[in-house]
Design goal:
Helix 5 runs antiparallel to helix 10 and helix 10 packs antiparallel against helix 11. The longest helix has 143 residues. The strands form four sheets. Strands 8-6-5-3-4-11 form a six-stranded mixed sheet. The protein has a five-stranded antiparallel sheet with strand order 2-1-10-9-7. It contains eleven helices and 15 strands. Strand 1 and strand 2 form a beta hairpin. The chain is an alpha+beta fold. Among the domains are: 90 residues, Tumour Suppressor Smad4 (Sandwich), CATH 2.60.200; 60 residues.
Length: 745
């Protein structure tokens, strides 16, 4: 026992020497020279440990001249494999602080040979994640008069102020105290012959321990609050990430809807989109990229959920640690209350004895107060520096994380820039193709305009020539009509004379054996065939009464032969053609039974040329040439084929004008629809280009597609406008009938 006491005294006088057992730092020697040393992960600890499962404060080591005592502050702190409250340290002891195990050795570094080994063997513990740092210099805590104690609910209460006068004595006797520290809660029994200085040292030591425990409790509360704040910040960051993922998912859904709408539009316009194969391939590539981005978002959501679960587990572990800390704090507060009672009792005794101190003691107090203030200033400076270092470390960690995020954003930005460059190259290629198409379209429009102007000039020249010819033919037809009316009057007079002469004359006129005096017999067949040809194509009307056996004379209407069949004729043109067919069929005037006699005869007059015969076949049924004809004996001038061709040309001209006007009227809505489609396409292209976020490549591709569609519709609009202009210029102004009156078919 004596040898151990000498060893303890020697270790206390020369400092505490610890050796690390196990782990990557096995065999490292740590020397603690301060009177009071703390071991843990807190920044204020004398020997600071880093690693998993390391507590903020594991234990407090107090060294005196006679012995060294250790006090446990956490449940996972063991001495020689056993739990303890306050126990003396001797060379050979094994002190385990969480995952780190120390061995107390002599100042020369040699372990005690006669001490058995306790605790786990050196190779039994896994200390791969634990790092032991060199101990920091001893930090003298501020006096109890300025120390604050955190309560259980987080509020701060001021410690006992009457301990302030004793701090100087405690600081002065800190290195000279030789009394042992009994376990907490046991009364101190001292012989009555002890010196007062020994009690003062004991009181100072206990006050220092109380201040140390209060400071550790405050640090533990701060660490708990810091952990809760860090957890809150992590939860906030996770919520922001979830909100960001949700917003990105919504944007992805909107892009999918837009893509589906484009696909539907592309399907609806497939008939007019023969050159959209490349665009559809680009859209399909964009769809695949959107699917990849969607999978990346889902993966990020799963990772965020995993991080959230991990944070929840860590939060629960911190709450459990917080509950354990509260329980330990309650026990510490109970111990502190007992210490307070003992200190108050001893304080009363010491205050009674201190009345006998002399003036030298007062001078010594003054000097001690000065030293104490200096120590307080140094302690405050060291604490401030430690806080600044911790704050700098946190700022550095935040900057490091920010730099990592910035690197990730930079890589993503470079990828987006590459995609944007590729999209721009694609758009440049499309623009070159569009420019070439525009040039080709401009050439086609110019060629069409030249052809239209040439066709219009030729049609206008042809129209004026034909109009002059038709006017000449109309004058000839008027002369023929005048002559026919004059001959009809003569024929009426002859018929009256025949009726007055008697029955034989009528029979002769009916059978064709006899002829009127003023009519030659040789002209009868020719006149009859000419009359049959004209009465099928001309409707005559005059002002005579209905009971007269004369055909009605009317304005001349001619049928027109169309150059080519038109499948989509309007109803007005169909009605007009039906009326022409009725007129071609012919309507003969009513005859009186006692005035004019008819008999079935066949047409024996001269036949017309091939063009007239084809017109007759187009405008009348094939059996019309064989139907019975009334035999009328009169003197009539034969109609020439030129006059019949003039009537046919006039009817054809009226029909062509009606068809041309109908086509022009149908072309106007088509022109307006194409112009509206081009305006809508260009509006969509400009809108998508302006409203695209940061000039994203997908809206730019959509804008290019809309611009291409708009250019196609512009080209078609220009082509339709050129056709409409050419048809308007080729269309004559008015249609002129035989009698010179203006009309519209």
């Amino acid at each position: 026992m004596f040898g151990e006491g000498n060893a303890s005294a020697t270790a206390a006088a020369s400092g505490l020497t610890l050796r690390v057992r196990g782990g990557p730092r096995d065999g490292q020697v740590v020397k603690l020279s301060g009177a009071k040393c703390t071991i843990g992960s807190s920044p204020g600890c004398t020997l600071r440990l880093y690693g998993q499962d390391v507590r903020p404060v594991h234990c407090l080591v107090v060294r005196g001249k006679a012995q060294t005592v250790v006090r446990r502050w956490s449940a996972d702190t063991l001495l020689n494999g056993e739990a303890f409250d306050d126990k003396q340290l001797v060379p050979g002891d094994r002190l385990r602080c969480g995952p780190v195990e120390f061995e107390v050795v002599t100042p020369s570094g040699e372990p005690c040979a006669n001490r058995p080994a306790f605790g786990l063997p050196a190779a039994g513990g896994d200390l791969s994640g634990t790092h032991v740092l060199a101990h920091s210099p001893a930090i003298t805590p501020p006096p109890i008069g300025t120390q604050v104690l955190p309560s259980l609910d987080g509020s701060m209460t001021v410690a006992i102020p009457q301990f302030r006068p004793l701090t100087a004595a405690a600081a002065a006797d800190d290195g000279r105290a030789t009394v042992a520290i009994p376990p907490v809660g046991k009364p101190v029994h001292e012989p009555s012959g002890k010196f007062d200085s020994q009690r003062e040292a004991d009181l100072a030591r206990r006050e220092a321990e109380l201040a140390q425990s209060e400071r550790k409790a405050a640090e533990a509360a701060e660490q708990c609050a810091a952990r809760e704040q860090a957890l809150l910040e992590r939860e906030t960051a996770l919520a922001r990430q979830e909100a960001d993922l949700e917003s990105r998912a919504e944007r992805l859904g909107l892009r999918e809807l837009e893509f589906e709408q484009r696909v539907l539009n592309a399907g609806a316009n497939a008939a007019n989109a023969n050159g959209w194969g490349g665009e559809l391939a680009a859209i399909e590539e964009a769809r695949r990229k959107l699917e990849d981005e969607r999978e990346a978002l889902a993966k990020a959501q799963r990772e965020g959920a995993a991080q959230h679960a991990m944070h929840e587990a860590e939060h629960k572990r911190w709450q459990e640690d917080h509950r354990q800390w509260k329980a330990q704090r309650k026990a510490a507060e109970a111990q502190m209350e007992g210490l307070h009672a003992q200190v108050e009792h001893q304080l009363a005794e010491i205050m009674a004895r201190r009345k006998n101190l002399d003036q030298d003691r007062d001078a010594w107090k003054t000097e001690s107060e000065t030293n104490r203030r200096q120590l307080e200033e140094r302690a405050a400076e060291v604490a401030r520096q430690a806080e600044e270092i911790e704050r700098s470390r946190k700022e550095f960690e935040a900057q490091r994380q920010k730099a990592a995020k910035l690197l990730e954003e930079t890589s993503r930005y470079e990828q987006l820039c590459a995609e944007l460059t590729e999209a721009r190259q694609m758009l440049a290629t499309r623009e070159q193709e569009l420019a070439a198409a525009r040039e080709e379209l401009a050439q086609l429009v110019a060629t069409a305009a030249n052809r239209a102007s040439e066709a219009h000039s030729a049609a206008e020249t042809d129209y004026h020539g034909k109009l002059a010819q038709l006017e000449h033919q109309a004058e000839a037809l008027l002369r023929i009509r005048t002559q026919l009316e004059r001959e009809r009057a003569e024929w009426d007079a002859q018929m009256q004379s025949v009726a007055a002469s008697g029955t034989p004359a009528r029979r002769a006129s009916e059978s064709g054996d006899a002829a009127p005096t003023r009519t030659r017999a040789t002209d009868a067949p020719s006149n009859l065939s000419t009359w049959d040809l004209l009465k099928d194509r001309i409707d005559f009307t005059d002002d005579e009464p209905e009971d007269r056996a004369t055909p009605r004379a009317a304005a001349l209407h001619l049928p027109g032969a169309r150059a080519e069949p038109i499948a989509d004729e309007a109803e007005s043109i169909e009605r007009y053609m039906a009326s022409l067919m009725e007129r071609v069929g012919g309507r003969s005037g009513s005859t009186e039974s006692g005035t004019v006699a008819t008999e079935p005869v066949r047409e024996t007059g001269p036949r017309l040329d091939s063009s007239q015969e084809s017109v007759g076949r187009e405008s009348a049924p094939a059996t019309e040439a064989e139907r019975p004809r009334p035999v009328v004996r009169k003197t009539q001038k034969t109609v020439t084929p030129e006059e019949v061709a003039a009537m046919r040309e006039l009817a054809n001209l009226n029909t062509r004008v009606a068809i041309t006007r109908h086509g022009a009227r149908r072309m106007v809505p088509n022109l307006l629809g194409k112009a509206a489609m081009s305006v809508v396409a260009w509006t969509l292209a400009v809108g998508m280009y302006v409203t695209s976020p940061s000039r994203a490549w997908l809206p730019l591709v959509g804008a290019g597609a809309c611009a291409l569609v708009g250019a196609m519709f512009v080209a078609r609009t220009l082509t339709t406008a050129a056709q409409l202009f050419a048809s308007r210029r080729a269309m004559p102004g008015d249609d002129t009938s035989v009698d010179g009156r203006a009309g519209t078919p």
